[in-house]
Structure formats: structure tokens, C-alpha cells
Amino acid sequence: MAAEQFTMVKALNEALRRSLDENPKTLVMGEDVGRLGGVFRVTDGLHKDFGESRVIDTPLAESGIVGTAIGLALRGYRPVVEIQFDGFVYPAFDQIVTQLAKMHARALGQIKLPVTIRIPFAGGIGAVEHHSESHEAYFAHTAGLKVVAPSNPADAYWMLRQSIASDDPVVFLEPKRRYWDKAALDPSGTPDLGLHQARIARPGRDLTLIAYGPMVKLCLEAAAAAAEDGQQLEVVDLRSLSPVDFDTLAESVKRTGRAVVVHEAPVFLGMGAELAARITERCFYSLEAPVLRVGGYFAPYPPSRVEDAFLPDLDRVLDAVDRALAF
Amino acid sequence: MNVTVKRKTGAPKAAPGDHGTPAESGPPDLVQLLTPEGERREHPDFSVETTPEELRSIYRDLVLVRRFDAEATSLQRQGELGLWASLLGQEAAQVGSGRAMRPSDYAFPTYREHGVAWCKGVDPLNLLGMFRGVNHGGWDPNEKNFHLYTIVIGSQTLHATGYAMGITKDGSDDAVIAYFGDGASSQGDVSEAFTFASVYNAPVVFFCQNNQWAISEPTEKQTRVPLYQRASGFGFPGVRVDGNDVLAVLAVTRWALERARSGQGPTLVEAFTYRMGAHTTSDDPTRYRIADELESWRLKDPIERVKAYLLREGWADSEFLESVEAESEQLARRVREGVRSMPDPDPSSIFEHVYAEGHALVDEEREGYLAYAASFTDAGTDKGENA
Ligand SMILES: Cc1ncc(C[n+]2csc(CCOP(=O)(O)OP(=O)(O)O)c2C)c(N)n1
After folding, report:
1. Helix orientation angle between B246-261 and B91-100, rounded to the nearest 10 degrees
2. Which end of chain A is more exposed for a tag (fewer CB within 10 A), N or C?
3. How far is the centre of ligand 1, averaged over its atoms, from the C-alpha of B74 (Å)?
4. Would you say A159 and A172 are in contact if contact means Cβ atoms under 8 Å apart?
5. Cα–Cα distance, B202 to B236 (Å, whole number)
6. Whose CA is nearest to atom 21 of ligand 1?
7. Per-residue confidence (pLDDT) for residue B27, from 0 to 100
């Protein structure tokens, strides 16, 4: 099939459809994923085509959803769970970190937990409380989980296919404000990258902008704007938050000598903290400036009318770039 | 209000053979005092007496609350609100239970209890701030004993239970109502709330508005046992009431609150009702439910039956009905104007109230933000243009 234009929602839908089609053990489960097709319509039409024993409308109970997915996985199934919104994963947090993440190790590798947990995450869509949170650090901090976040439709498709195929539990974070972005995708092709490889989204020589999920597009815009001032910024799309492809990062930073990490989550103890520390360890003698971070403030995610002030925008990214370049 | 409630027997009996009945098969043990046609009914266990004046005032509440809700729905369509969760169809469940409370009783709502807020005396404009996106709450919960809206499903039932445990420790005879939906009954928090309330004999009424749907999922996706029967496994009574019958809701909730006050512990009230509108303004119910269902519930409208009763008894005339109508239009205007003139918060408000006692990192980030924001003003350009 030739490359067609896909929104991220449609790409995710296609990935689920093909995974369900190819493996009878694959299941989709969550609140409203059936007849409604999910609140974002990511599961649209799957219930109709695969039936309710494969596409399961669950009771409204996140701990129950993840807990039973664990049981199904123990029984040989590959559940793909949908959490409706980021802020509603916490009732399931216990099952995810105390059970899902640890069972493989506790069984000395004898059992596998191929559970994918899809979570629409982060902000920028003007939603009410608990619908805009970035909780990646909680999950990335837990050994036993893999955590990924695509930034565009093609990655969304391939990374979801790879996550479902993975024998490890994967927390799959979907940047909801990029759900309606379109790009070319050939679903019958092959992926360019492994699930946990980072991608140079734009090459440059002066500074490395590091982002994932919703902030990649912003960083590409920042790089385009900076190019008008003659600054050549490299943009690295991390794609995987656990494990992190530090090799690609280090190579980039060794070339540019400068790095700015951008994410929506509060800066304090966020992904950027780990990235900055590692880059410093690995690239200390190549660095011309400290690794800077741009992110949310140490405050609860604010009401939508002020979320623009909370979220990194072009100005804040370019401001950090200028500060790094000024060293 | 002088409503007398009589509870004639002990805990309500479950109808034989009820166990295992799918929730969808209809309400076997429904307390009803006013039929959809507006006729009064007797019930062996519950009764309520109202004066004509009281009934008119109940009618007024129902109409005003519905008008407020309709206005909020249009304000959302006009882009003034980001989202709205409509209570259409659930007015009787909310006004009946809301009016059963004393001012010192505490209500813990979910996000759709606009009618309860009304009965507790919360200014409806306060409810709109979070839906507009200017705040996450917008009222002082202790002012009217009406807690903040809770979006994470089921959480508030534990808060309500803890609050009720505190009431017991204080030796007070106040009571608490925890509101939640049929979907919420699946959450672990709700089961844990039942356990705590039962074990500590907490003065809390669990008020489940079973509006038949949790977004797209019908009640039978949450339970195979009528919800009110859940209570028996936890050791307290459950009653199913016609949630579209304001008098029955009033009588049953009054009784449950009296039980709580007099040290008899929690009760589960299942108000059997229907969500006539979409789940929220971002939902599309035509994808999952059939029009016939809506039509059959339309015949059970909670306001029409009170109106029919008032007219049948000669307790209201067209002049009264028109005056309520006029008052509801006034309310709508006040709400419309109030919402449109609601200012956006200052961006630096992000840093307010993060901690009660302050925090060095928040202070540092606030200073950083203010300096950053000021750098645009100094440059004489607006933030957007500077990009
Ligand atoms: C923990 C949690 N999971 C998911 C959601 C998303 N959500 C919001 S309302 C809703 C359905 C609630 O149904 P019900 O409890 O019956 O209440 P109703 O809206 O019908 O009054 C869902 C799934 C949420 N708010 N919180």
C-alpha cells in the first residue's frame, strides 16, 4: 500500500486493527472503547469488526482494568488497555508499579507481561482538571516498565505495533494535542527504527533540542524560527523515555556542544533532570554550556485559560536556546 | 421546609428473587409517591406531606435548575465554556435530595450536581468557573457545606465518609451525602467507602444517581445486581427510589439522613433516573443509545409530573407558572452576563496556593516567571508578536 495521509488517531486505530487481525490473542480493553470507539475515537469501528470478546468495554475501574489485564496476560493474551485520560491512571498506579512492573522479575523471568497501557497525555487542548497531566516521570522511574511517547502519526503507528509486540509492559503515552495532526504513512511497510531508538528530527550544528511527544513539533518550529537568525538547531525526538537512547543523544550533543531539554511536565525531578545529568556525565568535555531545561512549573496543572503560561511555548524555548548559546 | 417523613417499618426488604436480576430489567422495588401522570401514590414504608406552598417552591427549584443547565449548555456551544456536564433529566433526584438536607449537612458532589448546589445556596455562577477554565473549583466549600466538584470518579465517596466519621467523633448530629453515578459504583474507592462507613457506622448517605449510562456504557456493564442491593453485603440498607419523582426522593433521603443523625449509620439510596442529554458537551450519545429509550424516559419527566399534580390539585395557575418562567429567564440572563464578564486569571496565579505555607522552589519559579513576562512588556511588544 502506498503512503496515505493519516491523523495520529487514525494511525493508532490502524495499528490496533492490524494487531487484532494478526494475533487472535491481542485484546483491546478500557472504558468506552467499544460502541463509542473511545472518547478520542482511537478504537473506532474495532468493536464492530472484532466483537466484544476482543474489544472489551470494561467497568469504570482503572485498577480493575489493569489488574485484569495482568491476569489475561498471565493466561497468554496481549491486552492493550486504554486509560481514558492521563489524570485517571492513578487509581491503577498501584497495579502498574507494584504488580505489572515487577512480576517478570519476581518469577525469575519465567512469565511475561505483554501489556500495553495507552494513555492520552499532556495538555494544550483546553480541557478541565485531570485531563492534561504529564506523568511520564512516575512511570519511567519504575524499573520493569517501558515508557514511550510518539510525536507524529507514523511513529504512533509503528511504535504502537512494536509496543503490542513487546513482551514487556509498555506505557504508551499519546500526545493528545497532536491527535489530529496529519502525515504520510504506509502501514504495510516496515518501521525505520526500533521502539527504543531516538530520531534526529532535524539536523543542526549549534545546539541540540531534546523533546518527545507533544513538544517535538514545538521544537521543530523553534528550530525553523532560529534558522532565520542563522542558528542551526538540531532536534532529537527521544521517542522512548525508558529506556532512553543515550547513544544518539550523546553523539548529537558531542557535535553541537549544547543541549536544551523541553517537556511539559514540571521541570523539578522531571525527565529533563535525568537527561541533563546523563548528558553531563557523557559529554562533559564537549559541553560549551550547562544543559538547560524548559518545562512546566512546580504547580498543579492550571485551569485552561492560563495553561499557555504554564506550557513551554516558542518564546520559552528560544529564550533557553539564547541563554545556552550565550555561554 | 415542613416535610414530614414517616418510615413505617425497618430496613427495606429486597424483593424475593431480586438477586442476580440484571440491572437493565427494570426497577422491581422502586419507591414512588408521584406517578409520571402526576398522581399521588401511597407507599407502605415512605410518605411525605407537603403544603401547596412547599410544592410550588419545589416546582420553582426544578424549573430554575433546568433553565440554568440549559443556559450553561448554550454558553458552551457559544464558546463561553470549555465543557458542560448537563443534569437534564436528573432535576428531581438532585432537588429532592438537596432539599432533604439541613444547611449544616455536608454534600460531596461529583461534577453534575448543579441542582444540589442550588439547594445548598451556592451561586450557580460559581459552578461555571471550572467549566470555563478560569479555576479548578471556585467556591469555599465550607460556606454552604457543598464540597468542590470531583472529576476523578468515585474519590469523593471516601472524603464524604471520612468527613462523616469526623462528625461522629465531634458528637454532632449532622449528616453527609456523597453523590456518585452508576459507573462510579465500579471503582474501588466506592467499595472502600462502603466498608469504612459501615465499620465506623458513619453518618453518610451514599446517593447514587443511576442515570443508566456511564458515558457510553449502560449500567449492566457495571453491575449484574441492582445497585441498591450492593449495600446489604456491606451491612447497611439500600433503597431504590424513583429518581424522577421529587417527592419520593425527598422522603427517602430524609429518612436516610435521619437514620444517619440518630446513629444508625450509612444508607445507600439509588435514585433510578435518566441522563436525557449527552454525557458532557463533548459526547455524542447517538453513537451508543437508541432514540426510543430517550422517548420512554421523556414520558417520566420530573418537572411535568409536579406541574400536573399542582394543576390537578388547583394549587397553581397559569399566572404562577408564568412567574416561574419569567424568573428562570432572569436567572439565565444573570448567568449569561456573569459568565461573559468572568475575567481570565492572571497567569501568575499558577503559583498561588500551591502550598499553604509557601515553598522555596515555587517562589523561585514565580520570580523567574514574572521577570520573564516583564521582559516582553519592557520590549514594548506583546508576548505573541515577539515569537
Ligand atoms: C477515575 C476516572 N476514570 C475515568 C474518568 C472519565 N469519565 C468521566 S465521567 C465518566 C462516566 C461516569 O459515569 P457515572 O459514574 O455513571 O456518572 P454520570 O456521569 O453518569 O453521572 C468517565 C468514564 C474519570 N473522570 N475518572
Report:
1. 30
2. N
3. 22
4. yes
5. 11
6. B181
7. 60
Q: Which residues from A are below 8 Å from B128, CB to CB?
A: none
Cβ(B216)–Cβ(B282) below 8 Å: no
In terms of phi and psi (left: phi > 0; alpha: psi -120 to 50; beta: otherwise), the region of A126 is left
Question: Distances from the Cα of B53 to the Cαs of A255, B50, B58, B315, B371, in angstroms?
Answer: 82, 8, 9, 8, 60
Tell me if residue B288 is catalytic: yes
- Comparing alpha-carbon positions, the chain A residue that sits nearest to B344 is A305
Average pLDDT over residues B211-225: 97
From first to last of its 327 residues, chain A has per-residue pLDDT tens of 678 999 999 999 999 999 999 999 999 999 999 999 999 999 999 999 999 999 999 999 999 999 999 999 999 999 999 999 999 999 999 999 999 999 999 999 999 999 999 999 999 999 999 999 999 999 999 999 999 999 999 999 999 999 999 999 999 999 999 999 999 999 999 999 999 999 999 999 999 999 999 999 999 999 999 999 999 999 999 999 999 999 999 999 999 999 999 999 999 999 999 999 999 999 999 999 999 999 999 999 999 999 999 999 999 999 999 999 999
Residue B5 has pLDDT above 80, yes or no: no
The C-alpha atoms of residue B115 and residue A252 are separated, in whole angstroms, by 58
Which residue blocks in chain B are alpha helix, DSSP H?
52-77, 91-100, 114-119, 124-132, 141-144, 155-170, 188-199, 230-234, 246-261, 291-298, 302-313, 318-340, 360-378, 383-386
Q: Inspect the interface and report whether the beta carbons of A309 and B136 lie closer than 8 Å.
A: no
B 91-120 near A (Cβ less than 8 A): none
- Its pTM stands at 0.91
Closest CA to B247 of B313, B328, B329: B313
Amino acid type, B31: V
- Which residues of chain A are within 8 Å of residue B187 when distances are taken between CB atoms? 60-61, 91
- CA B222 to chain centroid: 20
Alpha-carbon distance of B360 to B380, in angstroms, equals 31
Among the listed residues B70, B60, B64, the one whose alpha carbon sits nearest the alpha carbon of residue B321: B60
The label of the residue with cell 476482543 reads A54
Q: How far apart are CA A145 and CA A282, in angstroms?
A: 24
CB–CB of B167/B251 below 8 Å?
Answer: no
Please name the amino acid found at residue A320.
Answer: A
Which residue among B135, B187, B189 places its CB closest to the CB of A303? B135
Question: How distant is the Cα of A27 from the closest Cα of chain B, in angstroms?
Answer: 18
Distance CA B310, CA B300 (A): 16
Place of cell 495482568: A70
Alpha-carbon distance B263 to nearest alpha carbon in chain A (angstroms): 32
Smallest CA–CA separation between A110 and chain B, in Å? Answer: 30
Enter the ipTM.
Answer: 0.88
A285 touches A277 (CB < 8 A): no
Find the residues whose C-beta lies inside 6 A of ligand 1: A 31, 60, 62, 84, 88, 91; B 112, 151-153, 181-184, 209, 211, 213-215, 275, 279
Nearest by Cα to A319 from B362, B387, B384: B387
pLDDT of B381 over the 80 cut: no
Assigned C-alpha cell, B45:
414504608
User: Is there a contact between A146 and A169 (Cβ–Cβ < 8 Å)?
Assistant: yes
Residue A326 is placed in which grid cell? Answer: 550565550
Q: Which amino acid is at A199?
A: R
* B259 a catalytic residue: no
Cα atoms found within 13 Å of the Cα of residue B114, Cβ hemisphere only: 30
What whole-number distance in Å separates Cα of residue A302 and Cα of residue A308? 9
Residue B218 bridge partners (DSSP): B213
Helix, strand, coil shares of chain B, percent, nearest 5, are 50, 10, 40
Q: Three-state DSSP class for B321?
A: helix
Kindly give the distance from the C-alpha atom of residue B64 to the centroid of ligand 1, in angstroms, as a whole number.
Answer: 26
Which position among B288, B298, B333, B359 bears the catalytic label?
Answer: B288
